[in-house]
Amino acid sequence: MKKTLIAGGLALAAGLIAPCAQAKPTVPAARPTIVLVHGAFADSSSWNGVMAALQHDGYTVVAAPDTLRGVRADADVVAGVVKSIAGPVVLVGHSYGGSVISEAAEGASNVTGLVYVAAFAPDAGETALGLAGRFPGSTLAPTLAPPVPLAGGGNDLYIRQALFPAQFAADVPLAQARLMAAGQRPVTDAALSEASTAPAWKHVPSWFVYGDADRNIPPAAMRFMAQRAGARETLVVKGASHVVMVSHPAEVAGVIERAAAAQ
Predict the structure, then answer these.
(1) Dist. CA 114–CA 116, nearest whole Å
(2) 136-172: string of b/e by CB count within 10 Å (b at 16+)?
């Protein structure tokens, strides 16, 4: 009798232990790397607040170079950065950078989401200038400085420094906006007039965030592009300027993190 009880107890213990021993540990999915692409009249420092928030929350962040020379050429550079990253990537573009990420993500199997931050999301054949002019509200053209001729042809475009704060960064402290004006990166007229060819937002999930006081890209244009892309989320920040990522980094980082979590 005693032997039978011992044997039964051992069998029961083995039955309890075996499933635990056979169960495979759950491996959490790798967090996407966040690749940020700045737009015209800005540089990578415009992402500083967003980068700080993302890094605080444990994300790996890369501010990709954007020469603002041409959509396809800039997209090729960003695509190279994406290709070098092992694991999933969420691509984020501001302004003209939206055109760049739309092209760069095409054919990149590790891009799981696109986030448009006050950005263009053009369809094939569309240009940044064409989209901005399709809806009323942009006051950019009168604020541009005289074009700077380039040796190889074409022109660089800048916003007049005195007009930059009100036009580009009206909700940013004036001293900071003046620094941004002095350090702005020019875009070529050709880049703004170059037609997109392969919009990845047609098959890659997208998220949009922009301000309702944007003076560069009309909010109506961004609403149209978000709806056309079937955006998973569209956040409109009240009173935010074109540089919503500078004035409202927490809100922008939040949208990016929700895009990252949706993979």
Answers:
(1) 7
(2) eebebeebeeeeeeeeeebebbbbeeebbbebbbbbb
Q: What is the pLDDT of residue 30?
A: 85
User: 198-226: per-residue pLDDT in tens?
Assistant: 899 999 999 999 999 999 999 999 999 99
DSSP codes joined into one string, 217-242? S-HHHHHHHHHHHT-SEEEEETT--T
Candidates 139, 140, 90, 135; CA nearest to 116 is 90
For helices 71-83 and 96-104, give the axis angle rounded to 10 degrees.
60
Measuring CA to CA, how many Å separate 210 from each of 93, 146, 213?
12, 28, 9
Whole-structure pTM value: 0.90
Q: Identity (one letter) of the amino acid at 17?
A: I
Domains of the chain as residue ranges with CATH: 33-261 (3.40.50.1820)
